[in-house]
Amino acid sequence: MTHSIDLEELAFVATVMERAHRLLDAEEKKLPPRTADGLEGPGSPHQTLLGAGELARGVDDAVRRIALAVGYACAGLHSHALRAAHHAHVAPRSVPGGTDRMARPLSSGTIEALKLVRQVSDFFGEGLREHIDRSLAAPEATWPPADWKQYDEERMKSAASVASGRSVASRPDRHESVTAAPDQ
Questions:
Q1: What's the CA gap between 103 and 96, in Å, rounded?
Q2: Which of 4, 19, 2, 9 is nearest to 124 (CA)?
Q3: Are 94 and 54 contacting, i.e. CB atoms less than 8 angstroms apart?
Q4: What is the largest distance, in Å, between two alpha-carbon atoms of the chain?
Q5: What is the distance between the alpha carbons of residues 147 and 31, in angstroms, rounded to a whole number?
Q6: Residues whose CB is less than 8 angstroms from the CB of residue 136 and which lie 6 or more positions away in sequence, other chains included
Q7: In the Cβ-directed half-sphere of 71, how many Cα atoms lie within 13 Å?
Q8: What is the helix (H) or strand (E) element at residue 172, kind and residue range?
Q9: Do 76 and 58 touch, CB atoms closer than 8 A?
Q10: CA 58/CA 106 separation, integer angstroms
Q11: Backbone phi, then psi, for 6, in 5-degree steps?
């Protein structure tokens, strides 16, 4: 079975993502330069600048991964093109996560860029659309946490409950019988 690469889809997604990148890059350049030591809280000018940069770099990286797949395909390097196309489908890093740092309301350019990424979110797989929707609806910045100790404790509890849930689900009790649900 030979896998094919949809160059039209890749070109379309790359075009949309490049438009989003230009918007995010312009928004980042509008922000004042870094003036703090980074210890400011969520939504501060410094954190907003960091978040805007994360968004712009994440979208730019996605465009580059798509372009690499297109380049390999056009050069006739099919196995490289398939591998690059697989990597191109990975959701952009820090998109929309960078918004967690950013002051609200988000700028119009940032909102427009996220809406563009949302339009092609199916290309990147499940979850990206929902993450974008949550970030656009968030009333305030949430990163970095105000209390790192509490944050670490919550993460440890969450990890422990996930791990215990997996171990229980993977080993049914010896005294229980496991039966399949009847067909309906």
A1: 14
A2: 9
A3: yes
A4: 65
A5: 27
A6: 96, 99, 106, 111, 114, 115
A7: 8
A8: none
A9: no
A10: 17
A11: -85, 95
CA dist 14 and 96 (Å) reads: 17
Higher pLDDT residue, 38 or 119? 119
- The token duo for 172 is 């049914």
In angstroms, the CA 100 to CA 81 distance is 34
| 107: CB partners within 8 A, 6+ apart | 27, 30
Q: Is the pTM of this model over 0.85?
A: no
Residue-wise pLDDT tens digits, 108-145:
999 999 999 999 999 998 789 999 999 999 988 887 77
As a whole number of angstroms, the distance between CA 68 and CA 62 comes to 10
Give me the chain's average pLDDT, please. Answer: 84
Q: If you compute the radius of gyration of the chain from its CA atoms, what whole number of angstroms results?
A: 21
Q: Which residues contact 37 (CB under 8 A, 6 or more apart)?
A: none
Rounded Cα gap, residues 63 and 124, in angstroms? 12
